[in-house]
Design brief:
By secondary structure, the protein is an all-alpha fold. The chain has helices at residues 5-16, 19-49, 53-89, 93-120, 122-128, 136-148, 150-165, 169-193, 198-221, 239-270, 274-310, 314-341, 343-350, 355-369, 375-387, 391-404, 406-417, 419-450.
Length: 466
């Protein structure tokens, strides 16, 4: 069956365009999307912080719920996109369409399950996630709207990933950025003008997610994407779900452990009062904003890997990895230096009248800034193995930073070092994760080298790396 012209054009672009230009063209919209998404999370924290230290801590507690929603969305979104990229690289466009439909409709269903469970057990969940007695009522109030937004949020993550996999990175960027802009505009309006308090921040998030969802879904209704969301394809091939979950499991591990680690971090910080919980919440948002640059670069890098690995162009896989690693390391080193020197000023923006928040947060932020240059190695290693369908390697690496290393450390270090242990858990986990990535990469690229040293890989090679 002959492929549509748009599909053939996209195939040639992914397989022939020079790697720096190709990665940059796909990464730039993804980076901007991630920046805006992280910025409106940071904006939520900023405006809510004007309501008090306990309110700031409430947003930090509820962030674990957002991490769960993101875990579902990114599992289905990046899992579908990874499978789709390989299928399009293998010129299997019909199967790619079935995968897109499976990922999208599954995200709506699972998002609805999160909504139902969250509304039924809201208070119990907030306690479990580390809320103090003073933070609890505010966290419950904030979380109500977050739970309602779960289906839209899950589906938006999937749609954004599908558009990038189908070569529509700019459309993905527009949808996600619009949601961010709406959120930033509505936050002060709902919180202060309408006097809704912390509920206003959460309602702004719900409205922004609805706007983003509508924009991201529009290209599929207009058939301007090469992928189609045909409901009839949902039950056509059961094995599609297995492939999506297999490819998306690293994302689930990464985001799922992010939720668990946030709960444990809040629980450990709770022993030192609301100021400690609030400080670690603000540090988490600032760090996420910086690291989101790397995640965006990785999202642009991943389709390049998927296409070229599926098309047996192993030399281009190597080039894409090293180009992205160098660019990312330089970028995060610069941003890490800036945040290190201005850490107290950044914390003051959120809680200028709380010396405890400023002191605790400044040290924790600086400790993380020193290790920002390790993030490109961690993120790209994870996304590389996810894109080439190495599920166990990708799952181990994605679980390491906030799971395999973080969870034992959060149980050990605070008991040994007190509050200092809480502040140092994430930096120590980052060092151990970066070290773990190295042997995985050595084995992979040695195997890739055996496939052929040419820039485009060995012609006619049909085998897969064992």
């Amino acid at each position: 069956m002959e492929q549509p012209q748009e599909t053939r054009k996209q195939y040639h672009k992914m397989m022939e365009m020079p790697i720096p230009k190709l990665v940059a063209s796909l990464a730039a919209p993804a980076v901007l999307s991630m920046l805006v998404t992280s910025a409106y999370n940071l904006t939520d924290t900023f405006f809510v912080s004007q309501l008090g230290t306990s309110a700031t801590g409430a947003v930090g507690v509820a962030y674990a719920v957002l991490a769960i929603i993101q875990a579902i969305g990114y599992t289905l979104g990046l899992g579908s996109a990874s499978v789709i990229s390989r299928l399009l690289g293998e010129k299997k466009s019909e199967e790619a369409g079935h995968t897109a439909a499976a990922g999208f409709y599954s995200s709506l269903l699972l998002g609805a399950v999160i909504t139902a469970a969250g509304l039924l057990f809201n208070e119990e969940i907030m306690r479990l996630l580390g809320a103090t007695e003073t933070i609890l009522p505010l966290a419950v109030e904030y979380a109500v709207y977050i739970f309602w937004s779960a289906p839209l949020m899950c589906a938006s993550f999937v749609l954004g990933c599908l558009l990038r996999a189908g070569g529509k990175a700019v459309l993905s960027m527009v949808g996600l950025c619009l949601g961010g802009v709406v959120n930033i505009a509505l936050d002060p309006l709902f919180i202060f003008t309408f006097k809704m308090g912390i509920s206003g921040a959460a309602l702004a998030t719900l409205v922004s997610q609805a706007a983003s969802f509508a924009v991201l879904l529009f290209p599929f209704f207009r058939r301007s994407s090469m992928l189609h969301l045909n409901p009839k394809a949902v039950f056509r091939r059961g094995k599609v779900y297995g492939a999506v979950l297999k490819a998306g499991m690293p994302s689930f591990c990464r985001q799922g452990f992010a939720s668990v680690s946030t709960a444990f971090l809040n629980g450990s910080a709770r022993a030192y009062g609301d100021a400690a919980v609030a400080a670690m919440s603000v540090v988490g948002r600032i760090s996420l904003l910086v690291i989101s640059l790397m995640i965006g670069l990785g999202q642009g890098f991943q389709p390049v890997i998927g296409y070229n690995y599926g098309g047996k162009q192993y030399g281009r896989v190597r080039k894409a990895f090293w180009f992205s690693l160098i660019v990312g390391t330089v970028l995060l080193a610069v941003l890490g230096a800036v945040c290190f020197f201005f850490a107290p000023q950044l914390m003051t923006l959120f809680r200028a009248d709380d010396a405890g928040v400023i002191e605790t947060g400044s040290f924790a932020l600086r400790a993380q800034c020193v290790l920002f240059p390790l993030q490109p190695l961690i993120v790209l290693s994870n996304m590389l193995f996810q894109a080439v369908e190495r599920p166990w390697q990708a799952s181990v690496l994605s679980s390491a930073r906030q799971g395999l290393f973080f969870l034992p450390l959060i149980l050990i270090l605070p008991g040994m070092l007190g509050l200092l242990g809480v502040q140092l858990v994430q930096p120590v986990a980052d060092i151990l994760t970066a070290v773990l990535c190295v042997p995985f990469l050595i084995v992979f690229f040695r195997g890739a080298k055996r496939r052929g040293a040419g820039p485009e890989g060995p012609a006619g090679h049909t085998g897969r790396e064992s």
